[in-house]
Amino acid sequence: MRIGVLTGGGDCPGLNAVIRAIVRRGVEHHGQSFVGFRDGWRGVLENVHEELTIESTRGILPRGGTILGTSRTNPFKREDGPARVRSTLAELELDGLIAIGGEDTLGAAERLHREHGVPVVGVPKTIDNDLGATDLTFGFDTAVSVATEAIDRLHTTAESHNRVIVVEVMGRHAGWIALYSGLAGGADVILIPERPFDIEEVCELVRRRHARGRYFSIVVVAEGAVPREGTLVVQEGKTDEFGHVRLGGIGHVLEREIEARTGFETRAVVLGHTQRGGTPTAFDRVLATRFGIAAADAASQRRWGEMVALRGTDIVLVPLAEAVREPKLVPDELYELAATFFG
């Protein structure tokens, strides 16, 4: 068999570990050969590719990012997109594709398979950990570790200066990174997209700490967190090819509002891309490797239209349609647990 591989969406620690595992497993156990497409679906649409071999994928396990490059290209934004995908597969004599990505990349893969018969296996990738049908996605553990270390460091400077520090972390639709890093880092307030916040309630939690003699506070906020309707105006940015608003900035909004409403000196720190850059944690390397091996096995069995997933401690196959049907959000009971430590 000859298989294409692509990485789409945001870069993520562990992508290279997946690529390495797919190639090693496929070549040595199934006699497969591999083509890597550059920059996600763009590479498939424009037939920009390179051969992937055991030699070309040596030494990439600890590397962050992706050796194939990535983009947020949507094949359905081009009128002839699906036809071009099929044409590229035919021209390169590929039996199928392994698509590594999040909700957008895998959503396109599922639609290409369902509507146009493109043979594809999915591998879940998102630091947001918001893909359904899998307990965890690789990259999440790394992002939480980076954010937690940052919160630990910010505690000392916040306490030294008696400041409120707002830490903005990633999380468009789901607040898993904010919740986990906030809990691990001892945050005093955690704001997530699933629970629209009231700015006055946030300020009251900060005031309560001051009343208790704790003159600093750490507020962790997911980039996709939104205020309750009518409580605060937040401007929206431009959208990408999948219709997602470009996020970032809620931290600075909170910085201004908290200081103006409480009189306490406040600073914002936006962690941004540092959360998904650099080397993956050991956990993410192992999970990504297991996903890659399972993907190569699934392709050899022609399990098209399915995605590898973690269920408990087992790697299983699930329908792509199930994986992208709806995002996996932070449940209320978990947020209420974290709220025990607010203020």
UniProtKB/TrEMBL annotation:
Diphosphate binds at G10. GO terms for biological process: canonical glycolysis; fructose 1,6-bisphosphate metabolic process; fructose 6-phosphate metabolic process. The record marks K125 as: Important for catalytic activity. GO terms for molecular function: 6-phosphofructokinase activity; AMP binding; ATP binding; diphosphate-fructose-6-phosphate 1-phosphotransferase activity; fructose-6-phosphate binding; identical protein binding; metal ion binding; monosaccharide binding. Non-allosteric. Mg(2+) binds at E103. Its main location: cytoplasm. Signal peptide: none annotated. It catalyses: beta-D-fructose 6-phosphate + diphosphate = beta-D-fructose 1,6-bisphosphate + phosphate + H(+). Substrate binds at T126, I127, D128, R163, M170, G171, R172, E223, R267, H273, T274, Q275, R276. The record marks D104 as: Important for catalytic activity and substrate specificity. Residues 2-298 form the Phosphofructokinase domain. Pfam families: PFK (PF00365). Its cofactor is Mg(2+). Keywords: Cytoplasm, Glycolysis, Kinase, Magnesium, Metal-binding, Transferase. It is an enzyme of class 2 (transferase). The active site is at D128 (proton acceptor). GO terms for cellular component: 6-phosphofructokinase complex. SUPFAM superfamilies: Phosphofructokinase (SSF53784). Homodimer or homotetramer. Catalyzes the phosphorylation of D-fructose 6-phosphate, the first committing step of glycolysis. Uses inorganic phosphate (PPi) as phosphoryl donor instead of ATP like common ATP-dependent phosphofructokinases (ATP-PFKs), which renders the reaction reversible, and can thus function both in glycolysis and gluconeogenesis. Consistently, PPi-PFK can replace the enzymes of both the forward (ATP-PFK) and reverse (fructose-bisphosphatase (FBPase)) reactions. HAMAP family: Phosphofructokinase_III. NCBIfam families: PFK_mixed, PRK03202.1. This is Pyrophosphate--fructose 6-phosphate 1-phosphotransferase.
